[in-house]
Design brief:
The protein has helices spanning 16-20, 25-35, 38-45, 52-59, 108-118, 132-136, 153-165, 184-189, 209-217, 221-230, 243-251, 273-284, 299-307, 317-349; strands at 64-66, 81-83, 86-88, 92-94, 121-125, 143-147, 170-174, 235-240, 256-259, 289-292, 312-315, 362-364. The protein is of the alpha/beta class. The strands form three sheets. It has an eight-stranded parallel β-barrel, surrounded by seven helices.
């Protein structure tokens, strides 16, 4: 059945004034949960099977402790970066979300508007709505089109050609989903995201589930070679967690290695992306840019990844929570809070620019106790 947007919310989206009153990221997440129907909340919040990967994505950040420098002039700070020769105001991007219209009626177009307002880039999914052409109309934000390999090369080439014609700045192919992961929450709820929304970027034939799954499962480095030859746009490969695959990606002409475990939504008991970031950065050796996602929720998370060598971080769940909390204004507020946290963290570390962040500002450390030590001990 088709879902009516308002039926997915317990309450209407809060207004801009109320969004401004969300003072922490936890406030924003709580507002999102209050607004969403339980099945939609579970769809976005959940992960594969027992959700070990989902939890590890968060807990792994605790293995890295900051080692700040003192007595440095940080009276003026700059959070901007360059990515694929584009100037961005923040080292943060909006990750592709195929069912983003479950969270805001504007879908991917709302994300593009927010990206322009925030001075950042956004990914647009093959399976999002509205169409990729409508999303790109009238926006000056850098947009990158995320591709799932469809039932044949002609269908895949067609959607890539459309993205090029619509002014997208790069093609991002997802390689970590050979088959759909099993998500216990959705199975218990009987929730199926696939048939519940229109998918205007691909034809009905291309959407045939068995064919689409077969194409993704059969994907090899030869297909990546074909894709590299199909487009003149920069090529991003999303879903790399092994250094050897990062090396192979470079050898096959990739411009960006995107470190991701799909937010813990596909394979359970996988490594956290922050755990493998350093070895992938070392393997890439500056021959491509490195992007990372999966589990990033706080400014400290972002700064840790940048210190370990990532050029930027993509946010998926936090994008969803922002939209669910307050639509366009809610997502913008999420980015404002992240920027504030990144800025404060940089000041305390003694750095004024993103480029000054280095691995020696981090130390491997035992995770803290779950509860604070009692006063007096």
């Amino acid at each position: 059945m088709r879902w009516n947007y308002l039926s997915r919310r317990r309450h209407g989206p809060i207004n801009a004034e109320s969004v401004a009153e969300l003072r922490t990221i936890q406030d924003l997440v709580s507002a999102a949960k209050k607004n969403l129907q339980p099945s939609i909340w579970d769809y976005v919040a959940g992960g594969a099977e027992s959700e070990v990967t989902l939890r590890r994505n968060r807990s792994a950040f605790e293995q890295f402790a900051f080692c700040p420098r003192a007595l440095r002039d940080v009276s003026e700070r700059d959070t901007s970066i360059r990515f694929l020769d584009r100037q961005l105001d923040l080292p943060i991007m909006l990750a592709p979300i195929g069912s983003v219209a479950h969270l805001d009626p504007g879908g991917a177009r709302t994300c593009a508007r927010v990206a322009e307002r925030a001075g950042i880039a956004a990914f647009v999914s093959t399976f999002s709505s509205p169409s990729l052409e409508i999303v790109s109309e009238g926006t000056r934000a850098p947009l990158f089109f995320q591709v799932y390999v469809l039932n044949d090369r002609a269908a895949t080439a067609d959607v890539i050609c459309r993205a090029e014609s619509a002014g997208y700045g790069a093609i991002c192919v997802t390689v970590d989903t050979p088959v759909p992961g099993r998500r216990d929450r959705d199975l218990r709820n009987g929730f199926m995201a696939w048939p519940s929304l229109p998918r205007p970027n691909v034809s009905n034939q291309a959407l045939a589930p068995n064919l689409a799954n077969a194409a993704q499962a059969a994907l090899t480095w030869r297909d990546l070679e074909w894709m590299r030859g199909t487009t003149g746009l920069p090529l991003i490969v999303k879903g790399i967690v092994h250094a050897e695959d990062a090396r192979l990606a470079i050898e096959h002409g990739v411009d960006v290695v995107y470190v991701s475990n799909h937010g813990g939504r596909e394979l359970d008991h996988a490594v956290a992306t922050i755990e493998v970031l350093s070895e992938i950065v070392d393997e890439v050796g500056g021959r491509a840019e490195v992007l990372i996602d999966s589990g990033f929720m706080r400014g400290t998370d972002v700064v840790k990844a940048l210190a370990l060598g990532a050029r930027a971080v993509s946010i998926g769940k936090l994008t969803a929570w922002g939209l669910a909390a307050g639509g366009e204004e809610g997502l913008l507020r999420a980015l404002e809070l992240l920027k504030l946290e990144v800025d404060v963290t940089m000041a305390h570390l003694g750095v004024a620019t993103i480029g000054e962040l280095t691995p020696d500002m981090l130390r491997r450390s035992a995770p803290p106790a779950l509860e604070p030590w009692p006063t007096g001990l």
